[in-house]
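Reviewers asked in the last cycle whether our approach scales beyond single polypeptides. To address this, we selected a multi-component target totalling 746 residues and predicted its structure end to end. The input consisted of the following lines:
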Amino acid sequence: MSEAVPEPGEPEKELPKSEEEAVLERIERFRRNRPRLRDDFINSAHGAGGKASAALIDAVFVKAFANEALAPLTDGAVLTLPSGERLAFSTDSSVVNPIRFPGGSIGHLAVHGTVNDVAMMGAVPAWVSAAFVLEDGFPVAELRSIVADMKEAAANAGVQVVTGDTKVVNKGSADGLYICTAGVGVIPADVHLDARSVRPGDRVLVSGTIGDHGVAVMLARGELGIEADIESDTAPLGGLVSALLAGAPGTRWLRDPTRGGVATVCNELARDADLAIILDEVALPVRPAVNGACEILGIDPLYVANEGKLVAVVPPEEAEAAVVALRGHPLGGDAAVIGEVRDDPPGMVVINTGFGGNRVVDMLAGDPLPRIC
Amino acid sequence: MSEAVPEPGEPEKELPKSEEEAVLERIERFRRNRPRLRDDFINSAHGAGGKASAALIDAVFVKAFANEALAPLTDGAVLTLPSGERLAFSTDSSVVNPIRFPGGSIGHLAVHGTVNDVAMMGAVPAWVSAAFVLEDGFPVAELRSIVADMKEAAANAGVQVVTGDTKVVNKGSADGLYICTAGVGVIPADVHLDARSVRPGDRVLVSGTIGDHGVAVMLARGELGIEADIESDTAPLGGLVSALLAGAPGTRWLRDPTRGGVATVCNELARDADLAIILDEVALPVRPAVNGACEILGIDPLYVANEGKLVAVVPPEEAEAAVVALRGHPLGGDAAVIGEVRDDPPGMVVINTGFGGNRVVDMLAGDPLPRIC
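The resulting structure, written as structure tokens, was:
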């Protein structure tokens, strides 16, 4: 690229912005309110989906890969094809420890995680890739069993695993196995989900009880000495999204509250929309066993990962229809309105506690539940 | 699925085959000549791209994920959209050790590996996802530098990194970092590459010197005490493919000879096409330094990975034009015709040595060069 050098004495003309400059400017506006990276070394919080993750993504990945598709910084990208057809494209790596837990395995998570990111963009998930990093010495029988879980998850999600890759690393270098999936789905022409379409007065919904997955995996490690009958909610959400969009076609925005939980995705929404999210603590559906375990662990279920739930924003006039649509689906029986969008305070999440008070809900800080997905 | 139970005495009718049965039958035909999995535990050979990899893929992945897109078992899948547009979709994980080597880094490999798989399907690579598995304690500065390599590789390849994921695992559990990429590209309507279109008499070409990447990485470990001026050939092949298809529009089939080398991809072609590949040892372009290092290592350059080369099959009347087209591109200066397709012996690769003899060239066995990509 050749630069125009102004002649001496000539006033500097304002050059038209290049596409890259425009994208960088949008990213800069977006970053304004985001946490800054202050660490010199990676630690577990950078993978926890909260503040440190956001700081790392901004500082390292977003600036390097600046482009229009990446700029919205959701869990996936919209690809527009020459025909005008739009695809959702997303990726996820699964490093959960242990690889089996009540309610599922790393195989289920690997498929559901990617399929759900694609579904949250309003797309119908269709195709999945699977790349395996296997540790030398990993039992083939165990691999077969994990792959059978992936097959089951793909069948339930209505997707095909169409391509893959296999690498083997030294003993001790992969905790058994890691699985990385990517997913592609077609976005119907009439679906346009975007945080920037969210308006004051809109309602915030969650499709069911929160915190089940994170707590189930933590307890499965057996390190805490707590026994409770809690299962991961890992599930494919494509069908639930279709039901919601049919019942509430004005749906503005969807997100699956995985790492960082409902609190973190609501913060991301508040910042992207530059609006306030006011949550109602009493309305949050939480299983008593999850609540109890969270009290012992000293964490708030609002920050705990889910793997089979969605948070939706719908216009007020469609809120009832949305709840009915979600509750009519097997995965949405405990769906509830949990909050409202307001003008003020912009970019923030506030929760009304049951006792007439309220407090600010920030993004997840640190990593209270490492390696849960 | 309900099964039709024949009445006693009634002759069993032949039921029409379900789609899944038809796919399984195709896979079964394909598997006939492939090596069988005999191991109970994963070892490095399962990730080396040769016989053990093929056996693992057949026994564990292919049967589980049986579907039309997966059935051809190339390095990627063709997705046909509702509009009729065709996409190529592929994934690759990079676990190379060390993460930097002469000529590139894990960042270059992660982008080129996926982009090249997409290009080998005749598609124009456009979008890439990147999922990072980072080890606790990995320096952020090092991550920035690897991401800068990915940015450079993406720019050279003409693709955008549009979505990603970041996970952190415990110290010691990822040798620094692993990177998993997936790629999507659009296949032009007039491009139809398929091993089944290969015919006796077709010529086999390679786009340049073989074995550079694998040898460069092995020497970079410094364990062998060999010093040689050998650089990895890691490069994006989309432009080279476009040049080839423009010069030789009848091109039948393409593949990048990564793990397992030219010998292994020729074996895969021979089996998929049910034809013989006759290679000419004297015609193989190999750098003297690579030849020398391979002699000391006791390996044949035919089995060593390349990361910036392609093997092409073209009809005989286009062979000359194909060589001219490849040599006219900066990445194809050493392109050469290296063999011919024949009827007999079907499914096999034979090499004519320089001394009038010939020998059978099998797929790679074992893992002479672990962790080179």
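Residues 277 and 349 of chain B are 5 Å apart (CA to CA). We regard this as preliminary and will revisit it once experimental data from Aim 1 are available.
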